[in-house]
């Protein structure tokens, strides 16, 4: 049995069918061919599959596609302009070396898009809190935080500022 669903994904209407047990991440990747949303742990712990649903970040591996019926979904593919021009946040990730292997990058970007919409000038602590549920094994987070703050126009504290002994 499949269920008919309709979504607005990155500003474009999509309709299709999904098994009631199909996750949103799998539907985006396999049903719609939007492979920018990655899958990691598939338990909601790593944040790799983060997308925005009606403006709020969700773990695409935990939400069922049928739950997103009628929703507005934003994925990493929707951040760049139609001509391929990167968004300011994507440019900052590149400039600040906020990506290495790139596997966590889509989830990090979407998490930070939500933060920057809600808090246009976040503090370093707010950026770190926002991405605390997104795991990265390559960058050590410094470059990711620097990228987010550069878009927000905030200075980046040196790593030494966080290594204060009690």
TrEMBL record:
<keyword id="KW-0408">Iron</keyword>
<keyword id="KW-0411">Iron-sulfur</keyword>
<keyword id="KW-0479">Metal-binding</keyword>
<dbReference type="Pfam" id="PF01799">
    <property type="entry name" value="Fer2_2"/>
</dbReference>
<dbReference type="InterPro" id="IPR036010">
    <property type="entry name" value="2Fe-2S_ferredoxin-like_sf"/>
</dbReference>
<feature type="domain" description="2Fe-2S ferredoxin-type">
    <location>
        <begin position="3"/>
        <end position="79"/>
    </location>
</feature>
<dbReference type="Pfam" id="PF00111">
    <property type="entry name" value="Fer2"/>
</dbReference>
<dbReference type="InterPro" id="IPR012675">
    <property type="entry name" value="Beta-grasp_dom_sf"/>
</dbReference>
<dbReference type="InterPro" id="IPR006058">
    <property type="entry name" value="2Fe2S_fd_BS"/>
</dbReference>
<dbReference type="GO" id="GO:0043885">
    <property type="term" value="F:anaerobic carbon-monoxide dehydrogenase activity"/>
</dbReference>
<keyword id="KW-0560">Oxidoreductase</keyword>
<dbReference type="InterPro" id="IPR002888">
    <property type="entry name" value="2Fe-2S-bd"/>
</dbReference>
<protein>
    <submittedName>
        <fullName>Carbon monoxide dehydrogenase small chain</fullName>
        <ecNumber>1.2.7.4</ecNumber>
    </submittedName>
</protein>
<dbReference type="InterPro" id="IPR051452">
    <property type="entry name" value="Diverse_Oxidoreductases"/>
</dbReference>
<keyword id="KW-0001">2Fe-2S</keyword>
<dbReference type="GO" id="GO:0051537">
    <property type="term" value="F:2 iron, 2 sulfur cluster binding"/>
</dbReference>
<dbReference type="InterPro" id="IPR036884">
    <property type="entry name" value="2Fe-2S-bd_dom_sf"/>
</dbReference>
<dbReference type="InterPro" id="IPR001041">
    <property type="entry name" value="2Fe-2S_ferredoxin-type"/>
</dbReference>
<dbReference type="GO" id="GO:0046872">
    <property type="term" value="F:metal ion binding"/>
</dbReference>
């Amino acid at each position: 049995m499949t269920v008919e669903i309709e979504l607005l994904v990155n500003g474009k209407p999509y309709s299709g069918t999904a098994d009631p047990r199909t996750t949103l991440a799998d539907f985006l990747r396999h049903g719609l061919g939007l492979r920018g949303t990655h899958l990691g742990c598939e338990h909601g712990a790593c944040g790799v599959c983060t997308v925005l649903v009606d403006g709020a970040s969700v773990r695409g591996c935990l939400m069922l596609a049928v739950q997103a019926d009628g929703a507005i979904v934003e994925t990493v593919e929707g951040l760049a302009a139609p001509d391929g021009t990167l968004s300011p946040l994507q440019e900052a990730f590149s400039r600040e070396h906020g990506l290495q292997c790139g596997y966590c990058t889509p989830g990090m970007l979407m998490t930070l898009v939500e933060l920057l919409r809600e808090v246009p000038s976040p503090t370093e602590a707010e950026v770190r809190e926002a991405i605390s549920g997104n795991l990265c094994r390559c960058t050590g987070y410094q470059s990711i935080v620097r990228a987010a703050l550069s878009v927000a126009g905030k200075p980046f504290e040196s790593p030494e500022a966080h290594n204060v002994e009690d």
